[in-house]
Predict the 3D structure of the following.
Amino acid sequence: EIVLTQSPATLSLSPGERATLSCRASQSVSSYLAWYQQKPGQAPRLLIYDASNRATGIPARFSGSGSGTDFTLTISSLEPEDFAVYYCQQRNNWPPTFGPGTKVDIK
Amino acid sequence: EVQLVQSGAEVKKPGESLKISCKGSGFSFTSYWIGWVRQMPGKGLEWMGIIYPGDSDTRYSPSFQGQVTISTDKSINTAYLQWSSLKASDTAMYYCARQSGGNFDYWGQGILVTVSS
């Protein structure tokens, strides 16, 4: 089973700042990595799929990059509604797995 | 509009059985895989398994194989997750989600299952 490691566990930033979240896989997942956002009391929401493709309706301030074992989710300028937990998920190997999450909170 | 509507919260005792549901609308239910994801209190997301309502093909993560059963009734656009004997450790939020291109693009609102004596 592929293990995904996310760093940092918590990222404390102010609105308007740039957020850079990392996801590292225990072995290559090619480009089959997605990012999800989850706000308290809500279901997760798909942000990025296949490493760098924004899902429908996702603002351009969200971008993804990477391939193989190292991936990055960047939020170019944090909006108040972006403070949430972000999970990466791989689908290259069975079973699909999620990372433990990075919490982006307000500094 | 694509929607996945899950049944309501459940409170059960250890050893009891349970079947929770997820009803899809606004899309061709038999043309997409439907998956289940567990989130234990204060914890992250865990991928449980998926089912293809078109032919009932079902696949489980090894961590959940034998622990739960995923099924579907395509005549009413509904997928199910069931337990034959609940444990306290099954206490969690359970989400269903539609899988498109291998990713979960639409999610249900979640069902909180509480197992306590």
